[in-house]
Amino acid sequence: NLKRPQGERPQGRSPRVARRRRRMREALLTAGARQFVNRGVARVSVEDLLAEADVSRATFYAIFSSKYSLLENIINPIFDTATKAIRDLADEPACGGLTGILDTYLALWHAHREGLLLITSVDAATFRHFEKRHQALNDAMFTVLAKAERANLLRNGSAEYSLKVIARSAIPLLKVYDEHPSGDALFADAMKALLTRAD
Q1: Which of 44, 148, 151, 173 has its CA 20 to 30 A from that of 118?
Q2: What is the Cα–Cα distance from 169 to 12, expressed in whole angstroms?
Q3: Residue 197 phi/psi, 5° resolution?
């Protein structure tokens, strides 16, 4: 029985191997987000992902169990980040909470543009992979919007309707203003006009 020399790492656990695995994982996440958004989840095969990310089938399955596992790894972190950020707004004044929701969308857009677009484009069968996280995000937003409703800030007077406005308008507006030099400000102004009462 040969002992491994002290300080030597087990095979496959070296920093170089770990860095290479992280790079391949990121390449697959990037390829997946782009292909799923452009072609739809159902039309993208594992072979398509392998070709774009330039990784082997064995590598893919060492990291993800299926294309749906890859999809979950693209979308779930976005939901988790958004839900935490919006839960953190619960103690803000009503007006600050509304601004915080819009700031959260902008931050996510700049960090995860394709992932946000993907969330809005998945079909009902695929959506079940994210339903619980989506509900958690909605619950967090409703809490912030309910405070704005009580403060009489909402244009339609209702946290429920304002949540629907955000769900159906925020990402399309981010897409509209994506390349505009004042896009962030225009998005915020447009959403505030939809959500809040005129002064």
Answers
A1: 148
A2: 47
A3: -70, 145
Q: How far apart are CA 74 and CA 52, in angstroms?
A: 16
Question: Per residue in 109-167, pLDDT tens?
Answer: 999 999 999 988 888 888 888 999 999 999 999 999 999 999 999 999 999 999 999 99
Among 65, 77, 75, smallest CA distance to 118 is for 75
pLDDT band at 199 (very low <50, low <70, confident <90, very high): low
User: Distance (Å, rounded) from C-alpha 131 to C-alpha 80?
Assistant: 12
Q: Are 165 and 194 in contact (CB under 8 A)?
A: yes
Partnered with residue 154 across adjacent β-strands are 196
- Report how far Cα 87 is from the mean position of its chain's Cα atoms: 16
pLDDT in tens, 53-82: 999 999 999 999 999 999 999 999 999 999
